Amino acid sequence: MQNKVEIQKRMKKTRSRGSAPRGRTSEELLEKVFSSIGILIAYLDRDFHFVRVNRAYAEADGKTPEFFVGKNHFELYPDEENERIFRRVVETGEPYVAYEKPFVYAHNPERGVTFWDWGLQPVLEDDGTVSGLVLGLVDVTRRVLAREAARKEAAFRKGIEESLLCGIAAVDLEGRQTYVNPAFCRMVGWSQEELLGKPYPFVYWPSEEQERIAWEFRSLIKTGKPRPMEMRLRRKNGERFDALVLPSPVFDDAGKPVGWVASVNDVTEQKENQRRIEATNEVLKWFSRAANRKEYLDGVLGLVHRWSGCRCAGIRVVVGSQHIPYESYMGFTREFWESENWLSLEQDQCACIRVVLGKPDPQDLPVMTQAGSFLCNDTEIFFGDLTNGERSRFRGACMRCGFRTVAIVPVRYQDKTLGAIHLADERPGNLPPRVIEFVETIAGIVGEAVHRFNLEAELRQSEARLRQVSVELLNAQENERRRISREIHDSIGQSLNAIKYRVEDTLLRKSRAEMAERLRDLVPIVQEAVEETRRIQTALRPPILDDLGILATLNWFLREFQGTYRGLQVDRSLLAAEEEIPDSLKTVIYRVVQEALNNVAKHSRAKRAFVSLSRKAERLELSIRDDGVGFDPALVADAEAERKGMGMTSMRERVALSGGVFSVVSAPGAGTTVTATWEIECTPGRTDSL
Asked: Can you tell me the distance from the alpha carbon of 368 to that of 373, in angstroms, rounded to the nearest whole number?
């Protein structure tokens, strides 16, 4: 303790004079410190190169003082933690003191662990910058070892007297078990009578580890140096557990070894926690390494597969709010994968469907965890207790494949379920609660990652759709110009040419009667040109939309549409009032109805269609439904599938740009429903525009 106080006093005195000129202060400090006996002193520059060491410092490592000059401290004594401390002192100018810090000479491991009190004092320039460091050390190894030996002896005696929770075992030089305390017996499952007097190898040593462990303990007796050891021991019931063994040699009064005694602690839980931390870090690393969702899920699945010990594992991901295919799997047969891959959340019934939907049946509850996972460690017993009606709520594919252990763990992001982790094995009882609890923890991290990957994918798809829409808009603009030009040329242009010819011919007539007759003949031609102009104007934008509003425009359009497509019955329900619909949405609503009904007429082969426009509180909803052949929305959502026309993308982008939400619900043979919704203010008749 005197050495500690001495170091602190010297550092405090040096620091108080640290603002003096560097040359004088450095020399005075070095001369004073280096003259001390028994303290190891080294002076280093700010890059940790030795400038000078005293003889005690050099001799502690079996070197001369000249050996150290110019060498880097951390090349000789690498230590990341100490290097961080040295750098912090250089950066802050604040001294550092450590007590009884362990150190092992890497080039001389026979010395074992040594312990040091040491301090680090910065040498300051006039401007406050650190120009160098003074390192002072005191070897306190004997003190620490003496105190540790006393502590062990006291703990040993107390453990013997009070039967500590840690196990205590003693062995003589002949290798016979001479003592075990009750805690050790509880730990391994054998009684004292079954263990005492038994020779090597001991029954609690696994057969594959016996030779190595015996060599470790013989080496301990030979060297007499205590050191902790991690071992994998065996209980009487065959279960393996991790143990931290702290053996110490025992000597008689003459100093001769007579055996060893060891404390044994069950560290299975600590090791399990360490493995969990490592596995969690691996899951996080996969997110930073993976280029896409599939690569990430493949990496995570490998980890879950190893951790769970189940032969089969898979990760399902919800697609289009309807199906839950396996995006990554291993162990399952192809037949199982093909039969279970595209389960429908709407049409199929099974435990995995209910886990994803978060709606377990009453018969599921006995095997549901608090986190909402389905965990059945013996399907034969579970299904054997169900009624026929309850069994019908399961597809039974896992049972048919012989899986006795089955677990489905939901993968969620906040309140939304994005998929599920499926584990299965032919062995019953293969998923203890602690394992499934950890998989549930991993599932939470996977949910966060899948959400991020989904957002990135949606962003890429949105960018692709925008590029596609831009191209299609340019093409549509050019096509529209070409069409209008052709219509003007073929109709209005021809009419104007005819009018021009008639006017010229009329001017050549001398009789007023003939001129009047010619002019009367021009009236139908002029009227036809006017009607054609009005038709083209209406096709571009109905004037009724600006004059009478969206409801009148929709009624007019639906009458015109019905007249054109007589085989398609169109019903309507326009319940929103005109003043409730913002002006900014009227053109969008008209174009969506126009495009949606044109798609119905061209592609659906429907007999009936229904158009609905309603206002509920602060929500405006437009719906176009038909009873046609339907389609797979996933295909239409793909930008590649939409290259032939704007179609669904045009409607989607119009609604999105106006602040609404667009959705399509369809399936082959089940018709199609197109819905657009907008959140609008209570104040009617807004005049804001896009």
From this structure: 5
Q: CB-hemisphere CA count at 13 Å for 582?
A: 22
> Which string of b and e fits 356-394 if b means at least 16 CB within 10 Å?
beeeeeebbeebbeebbbbbbbbbeebbeeeeeeeeebb
Q: Answer with the residue of higher pLDDT: 176 or 13.
A: 176
664 in helix, strand or coil? strand
What does the pLDDT look like over 411-467, one tens digit per residue?
998 888 889 999 999 999 888 888 888 888 888 888 888 888 888 777 777 777 777
Q: Where are the alpha helices (DSSP H) in 488-549?
A: 494-507, 512-540, 543-547
Residue 283: name the closest of 254, 307, 260 by CA.
Answer: 307
User: What is the torsion angle, in degrees rounded to the nearest 10, for the CA atoms of residue 601, residue 605, residue 607 and residue 611?
Assistant: -40
Token pair, residue 234, equals 């065996």
Using the structure block, give the residue that is written with the tokens 């995570």.
300
Neighbours of 631 (CB within 10 A): 20
How many Å apart are CA 458 and CA 222, to the nearest integer? 68
- What pLDDT, on the 0 to 100 scale, is given for residue 258? 82
Give exposure, 229-247, as e/b (b: 16+ Cβ within 10 Å).
Answer: eebebbeeeeeebbbbbbb
Domains, the chain, in order of start with CATH, read 2-139 (3.30.450.20), 145-266 (3.30.450.20), 277-540 (3.30.450.40), 541-679 (3.30.565.10)
Pick the closest to residue 310 from 297, 323, 329, 291 (CA basis): 329
* The pLDDT value given to residue 159: 53
The rounded distance, in Å, linking the Cα atoms of 292 and 630 is: 31
Max CA pair span of the chain: 155
Angle at 145 between CA 139 and CA 151, to 5 degrees: 140
- C-alpha to C-alpha distance for 395 and 475, rounded to whole angstroms: 50
Peptide bond into 182 cis (omega under 30): no
